[in-house]
Design a protein that fits this description.
Layout lengths: L1 E12 L2 E13 L4 E5 L6 H8 L7 E6 L2 E2 L5 H11 E5 L10 H11 L4 H14 L16 H13 L5 E5 L7 H17 L3 E5 L3 H5 L3 E6 L2 E4 L1
Parallel strand pairs: 3-8, 3-9, 6-7, 7-8
Antiparallel strand pairs: 1-2, 1-4, 4-5, 9-10
Bound molecules: adenosine-5'-diphosphate (ADP) and magnesium ion (MG).
Length: 223
């Protein structure tokens, strides 16, 4: 269970205080698939960064299984990310010099999986997202955008996170490929009971998730 209360993030800019996220409250159940929509600059990435403890709120609380993420020390934020969170980004953020397989194996290494188990587990994860055979040995530059995003989802799943945070995961993909990526995330939320919170611009896609949140000028409106 993820429960956010009165979450606010302000930035100090040359023009004064900018309220990127304005007193936002909501709860998400385990295994729920939530989409977030809203115009550019409405606070979507700010919200995901706070949920993933990549950033600290100005005020408010983020309860994840009875722990307030907003109050963690930097060291504990890192541990929280490693234990609970998988990130998926618009630009995939794969390591370009490593093959698909090696990218996933590296995440397993960070997660403390013993060396002898990494390859088999990485192959399993890549199978799950539909990256098979020779494709596993290709570097990101030799994979299509959709394939790269599949690899990045496999990487996000490496340490069996409770929550996947996806910031415009289909923003660089054509709409057919984008739908397939969302179908994959949907399948994961069902089979693994993973909570998924995904930003999207595609209203068709958003319509298929369990719930849609709309952000407007940092304020939350349930769409
Ligand atoms: N590090 C930062 N410093 C100053 N302003 C920021 C920073 N990050 C985001 N903002 C501002 O906060 C608002 C929300 O940004 P963001 O969360 O990135 O929106 P979205 O992801 O919906 O496009 C914007 O006005 C943006 O310019
Ligand atoms: Mg953004």
């Amino acid at each position: 269970m993820l429960s956010v209360k009165n979450l606010t993030r302000t930035y100090n800019s040359a023009e004064g205080e900018l309220v990127a996220l304005d007193n936002v409250s909501f709860s998400v159940k385990d295994g729920e698939f939530v989409s977030i929509i809203g115009k550019s600059g409405s606070g979507k990435s700010t919200l995901l960064s706070l949920l993933g403890a990549l950033d600290t709120p100005t005020s408010g609380s983020i309860m994840v299984d009875d722990e307030d993420i907003a109050k963690l020390s930097l060291v504990k934020q890192t541990a929280y990310r490693a234990r609970k969170i998988g990130f998926v980004f618009q630009h995939y953020n794969l390591i370009t010099n490593l093959s698909a397989l090696e990218n996933v194996m590296l995440a397993l290494e960070y997660g403390g999986v013993p060396a002898k188990d990494r390859k088999e587990r990485a192959i399993q994860l890549l199978d799950e997202v539909g990256v098979e055979g020779g494709m596993r040995l290709r570097k990101p530059g030799k994979l299509s955008g959709g394939q790269q995003q599949r690899v990045s989802i496999a990487r996000a799943l490496a340490n069996q996170p409770a929550i996947i945070l996806a910031d415009e995961p289909t923003g660089n993909l054509d709409s057919t490929t984008g739908k397939k990526i969302f179908d994959l995330l949907h399948k994961l939320s069902r089979t693994e009971n993973t909570t998924i919170i995904a930003v999207t611009h595609d209203l068709d896609i958003a319509g298929k998730t369990d719930r849609t949140f709309k952000l407007r000028d940092g304020k939350l409106q349930q769409a």
